[in-house]
Amino acid sequence: MTDAFQQILDDARAASVVLAQTPTTVKNQALLAIATALEDNSDRIVTANAHDLNLSRGDGMAEGLLDRLALSPARVTGLALAVRDIAALPDPIGDVLRGSTLPNGLQLTQVRVPFGVVGAIYEARPNVTVDLAAILLKSGNVAILRGGSAAENTNTVLVDVIGTALENCGLPRTAVQTIDPFGRDGANRLMNARGFVDVLVPRGSASLISAVVNDSSVPVIETGSGVVHIFLDASAELDMASDIVHNAKTQRVGVCNALETLLVHRDAAVRLIPAILERMVESGVTIHADEATREIFPRADVATADDWGHEYLSLDLAVKVVDSLEDAIEHIGLHSTHHTDAIITNDMANAEKFLAEVDSAVVMVNASTRFTDGGEFGFGAEVGISTQKLHARGPMGLSELTSTKWIVRGNGQWRE
Amino acid sequence: MTDAFQQILDDARAASVVLAQTPTTVKNQALLAIATALEDNSDRIVTANAHDLNLSRGDGMAEGLLDRLALSPARVTGLALAVRDIAALPDPIGDVLRGSTLPNGLQLTQVRVPFGVVGAIYEARPNVTVDLAAILLKSGNVAILRGGSAAENTNTVLVDVIGTALENCGLPRTAVQTIDPFGRDGANRLMNARGFVDVLVPRGSASLISAVVNDSSVPVIETGSGVVHIFLDASAELDMASDIVHNAKTQRVGVCNALETLLVHRDAAVRLIPAILERMVESGVTIHADEATREIFPRADVATADDWGHEYLSLDLAVKVVDSLEDAIEHIGLHSTHHTDAIITNDMANAEKFLAEVDSAVVMVNASTRFTDGGEFGFGAEVGISTQKLHARGPMGLSELTSTKWIVRGNGQWRE
Q: What is the CA B320 to chain-centroid distance, rounded?
């Protein structure tokens, strides 16, 4: 007997066989059809969303979360635009990555293929539903989506609208399914559907991601929290350092590539700290500093051990004076989440040493850490920043949502 | 307080920082020094191995396993040769995989870096200890090795010999460590050392690999068992089919790329089955066949449901007649472990359909499945055949034991 959840897994597998063979033109037509369907069904989507918003407001959801949950007609139009952008990106499927002809005449090619069935677990943000559905469709993958329960009505309508658009293009409606109606039990079953789900992508807060990583027997691509460091080397130029630090901390807080800890070389501390921290305070940043920093900039709060390696995601900044480049690298090794770390320097040997020895997904010299982003890197779409070393590291675009397959063509070869 | 096991993890991390920066020439010198040291310490290695063999014989270990455990002077020489071969391979570390200059002038490069600390869990085969140590050293990774307890004395001497050779080349002895003395508890701690061990590679039987996949919180590269299929299409040429099937089943049994199930198109069954199965029986193969096959070749045993998807690793072969290419693809989808599957055909459209729709790490047309092998593919060294879709799929060479890192070089850029 197959229960309703198992049926979803089986339907997803069947749809994945179709999607893996679907040509780019058909996938693009389907994406454009989805975009149009979202616009055409804007009223229905916004109405379902209003229902979710009412329920969540009744449950006392915080304003910031309500804002992330909310879809207005303008936001629906924005979602449709984003889907059209994904349709315009190159399709990675079928790319030949390597190939050779062996001495015995066998022809080898390694080609990009979809993962197959990709599960996603995320929070109550309906835009993520559309975003993931479009990115996974473009990369030939079938989606099983688990959004937050608070967005269940919105997600149900979105997946229905997407499914009808898929069917109108001759593709299976089951290429994009939601398991929101199964609640927490559904999330648990998804995490343990090894053999049915090829890869799981959690997207959201550090605690959500860590729960999925720990509980899942399906392989997970860990997208990560960012305890991002910038080290101001002894030779750092003041204006450049100030612009980059200010940008990395204040241009947008609450994102994983925002600065959390500033390290300053002792030889440059007196020269750099006053102007840089003064500008931060003017922008509303609270400074949590070690003693050496506070001697130079007494208005800073006293940092405690908890401030190092802390992902504030707010207008807070930890600041520490270090004795050397080596000490900076050591501090980063201990406290970074290995997302993005940067050095500001005019010393070429120090720049190269930092780039080589700091073991993070992205290492930078003389640039704002805010550039760690699929869009900024030119990938078009992004499904998060991977902080793991397996499979994908750094911003993940469409090609990071694929696997490969070896094709061997012979004419009767057998092994001696 | 740091216990002895945690000390191993900490030492490994410290060594990984050194190894990641070690130039290819130094790594190659170390590999050559290891090869020489193995030869120079042959007596000591063989004596320790004799001790292990005595203990295992006393414990009633089967002859086949004793043979895999045994090291003779000639086998030690073979190990040294294998290490020299690895020294001669190209070093993947530092390869630039992608790069671009962004419109704002930022220079992006994606470079290959080692994973860092790699754990390996395998059975009592001391040659694997040397093989993994050499492959991991070449790819800039630090090794924490857990071989079977039955090889503990041999592994301890091998790791000591390797460590001294590393030290003599100025590299940390802790770049290759064994945790055999910690027994099963050590294996469990290794599997749960997330954050300390970057990747875990199990190598050995299907049950060992499945236990590691299920119990490990460290990301695992699953190297796989092979339920390998060959499908003889209606147009398959008899001599080619017979040579390939015979080779795939009998050239070496007990390996993951050996044939386990033969599927034959109904339209070719009478033409192909008698001669092909006759030759198999002459080579000592036991045939487990469905009714349609037995009507043509009555000497075959009756296949039960358990024969489909069974990895015999012995001179046994399951044989089934199917009605069509689609039925063959469906059977493979249900029963393959997605390692290697092949079609023998002279029909171009059928070949392309099979290659596109069979979702296995390696798909072949008109060639023996025995070619799925890192050595045959020209990779030089191999750490197994990955049957998972994440990170690496198919034969894994040195570059599959690496991660990547994005390097961003700017001159003061910040984000608008």
A: 29
Would residue A239 count as lying in a domain?
A: yes
Q: Which of A391, A394, A408 sits opposite B391 (nearest CB)?
A: A391
pLDDT over 80 (residue A284): yes
Percent of chain B with pLDDT over 90: 87
Could you tell me which residues come within 8 angstroms of residue A254 by beta carbon, excluding any fewer than 6 positions away? A313, A314
Distance CA A191, CA A220 (A): 9
Residues B61 and B12 placed together within one structural domain of the fold:
yes
Conformational region of residue B265, where left means phi above 0, alpha means psi within -120 to 50, and beta covers everything else: beta
pLDDT over 60 at B107, yes or no: yes
Question: Which residues in chain A touch residue B341, judged by CB atoms under 8 angstroms apart?
Answer: none
* Interchain pair A108, B414: CB under 8 A: no
State whether A184 and A265 are in the same domain.
Answer: no
pLDDT at site B208:
86
Cβ–Cβ of A219/B390 closer than 8 Å? yes
Overall average pLDDT of the B367-394 stretch: 91
Instruction: Quote the number of domains for chain A.
Output: 2
Q: Sort residue A195 into left (φ over 0), alpha (ψ -120 to 50) or beta.
A: left
pLDDT tens per residue, range A328-361: 999 999 999 999 999 999 999 999 999 999 999 9
In a domain, A387, yes or no: no
Q: Are residues B403 and B336 in the same domain?
A: no
Specify whether B249 is located in the same domain as B183: no
Task: Choose among B180, B221, B150: nearest CA to B8.
Answer: B180
What is the domain extent for residue A22?
4-221+396-408
> For B21, which of A17, A357, A403 is closest by C-beta distance?
A357
> Do A107 and A15 touch, CB atoms closer than 8 A?
no
**Among B190, B67, B206, B58, CA closest to B124:** B67
Is residue A202 within 8 A of residue A121, CB to CB? The reply is: yes
Domain containing A57 — which CATH number?
Answer: 3.40.605.10
Residue of A nearest to B396 (CA): A406
pTM: 0.91
User: In chain A, which residues have their Cβ closer than 8 Å to the Cβ of B359?
Assistant: 17, 20, 113, 116, 405
